[in-house]
Amino acid sequence: MFMYKKLLLVVIFMLPTYYSFGQTNNDSSLVVSFFKTYEQKGVKQALEYIYKDNIWISASSGISDTITNQLQNVVGQLGNYYGYELIKKAKLGTCYVVYSYLVKYDRQPLRFVFLLYKPNNKWRFQSFNFDGNLGEEMYKTTNVTWDY
Predict the structure, then answer these.
(1) Best exposed site among 20, 28, 35, 72 by fewest CB in 10 Å?
(2) Whether 46 contacts 127, CB under 8 Å
(3) CA 71 to CA 2: how far, in whole Å?
(4) Angle of helix 43-51 relative to helix 63-75, nearest 10 degrees?
(5) What is the pLDDT of residues 70-119, one digit of tens each?
């Protein structure tokens, strides 16, 4: 009898996690999937993942190729990759969100910015950008000014 109670408790605690995996995508799951692809398959496949569900961007000639080439060139000069951290998340209503991430490399970090949009019932990437100007972000965040 005791074993059945234990088993029932385990099943009760596991049901919410089982059902959460079956839900439609949420905004953060897209970014997590991007970084998994980035870490396992590289820049090109990760950026293809971003653009695959947005016909408006993939139909634009050369946008994804240009960003892919630029990011591959920059990453090739930064050394080893060590992961990523969320810098900031901002929402505009319930259907528009921007994520800013610090992406760690040997030489210096990069900032990846993802803009996601949910026009109906599914989130998709609206735009992606990257830069190495994290010093500016730090100055804005801490209100530091430099006197030269």
Answers:
(1) 20
(2) no
(3) 58
(4) 150
(5) 999 999 999 999 999 999 999 999 999 999 999 999 999 999 999 999 99
Please tell me what DSSP assigns to residue 5: H
Cα(16)–Cα(4) distance, rounded to whole angstroms? 20
109 backbone dihedrals φ, ψ, rounded to 5°: -85, 160
- Which residue spans within the chain are E strands per DSSP? 81-92, 96-105, 110-117, 124-131
Q: Give 25's DSSP letter.
A: P
pLDDT reading at 6 higher than 70: no
What's the alpha-carbon Rg for the chain, to the nearest Å? 20
For 65, other C-beta atoms within 10 Å of its C-beta total: 11
* Close Cβ partners of 25 (under 8 Å, ≥ 6 residues apart): 122, 123
CATH number of this structure's domain 24-142: 3.10.450.630
Say how far apart CA 136 and CA 133 lie, in whole Å. Answer: 6
- Would you say 131 and 122 are in contact if contact means Cβ atoms under 8 Å apart? no
The pairing of strands 81-92 and 96-105 is: antiparallel
Give the dihedral sign, CA 119/120/123/125. Answer: negative
